[in-house]
Amino acid sequence: MTNALAQLLDTLDLEKIDVNIYRGQTPETRNKRVFGGQVFAQAMRAAQDTVSAERMVHSQHAYFLRPGNPNIPILFEVDAIRDGKSFTTRRVVASQRGSAIFNTELSFQVTEQGFSHQATMPQCTPPEELSDDSIRWAKLLQAMGRKAQDISKRPIEMRSVDPLDLVNPTPRQAEQLIWIKTAGVIDDNNGQQDSALHHAILAFASDYNLMGTSLLPHGVSLSTPELQPASLDHCIWFHDKFRADEWLLYAMDSPRSSHARGLSRGSFFSRDGRLVASTIQEGLMRLHASE
What we know:
5 helices, Porin, alpha+beta, 291 residues, 37% strand
């Protein structure tokens, strides 16, 4: 396990300070705001701690209300809305210094048998034949005379099937395929997989690259100086078992952008072709005039 992955696991290990109240920290970062996937996953971990282990999260719907300050702890307050025979509902509000920065609702379900169908996994180059996106980004930043982040500090490894040019983007279809997994193996608990933890890690990773998909047709990237990007809301659904430390294909597309907002969708497929999770996000894509 890399130090970055160990740090992510520490970040997802919240401190319980009272009944249904938890405190989370943000790792040291050069970013001025908390990564949305982090608070999304931390809120999931807080809710999971209030639900019996046999009930797994199957959906989470969230809104990002204010930018999170990475230098201040985040408080997560869980509202135990309902515990039914098959489903459990939780609401979580994340706050800093008395102001809500994020809220979310989660639904948990006992395992049931029923109808089953799914979309077909896209055919693409396997991850073993692709290069690590972090290495490519580091070389790109060095060529620009900028300091690159040590790739060992990235908890999620990503390999793009058709890599983007973030510096000189050109218009292309609003679709991209990226293989992802944790940068290291996640130890099982006495031989038993901690599925709840794998859910939280995938929730964290689901915020990577998704909003950028809606920028592809416009020849703009998240590195464009005039762009003001921000996640507005984020949803994820879990359909089947998976491991976050094994390669998953993240297939993304954007059906629409309008009114300075872009809608993006994502599907996670396991190597054996199972659709294990789906996600949708709307992001702010405000382009300011260059000075």
